[in-house]
Amino acid sequence: MTSATAFLDALAGIGVRFVSGVPCSYFSAPLQLIDTHPDLTYVPAANEGGALAAAAGAQLAGTGSAVLIQNSGFGNLINPLTSLLLPYRIPVLIVMSMRGWPSATAGEPQHRIMGQVIPSWLRTIDVPFAELTAGGPRVTDVFDRAGQHLQQGDPVVLLVGKGAIEAAPAPGTAPPPGITSTTLVTTVLEQLRSDEPVLSTTGYLSRALFQAGDRPGNFYMQGSMGHVAAVALGVALRHPTQRVVALDGDGAALMHLGTFAAVGGAAPSNLVHIVFDNGGYESTGGQPVPATVDFAAVAAACGYRTTLTASDQDGLRDTVTHALSAPGPVLLTVRGVPGGAAGGTRASEGITVDAIATRFQAQLTGPALHHSQRSDR
Question: Which parts of the sequence belong to the Thiamine pyrophosphate enzyme N-terminal TPP-binding domain (predicted)?
Answer without folding.
Answer: 1-97
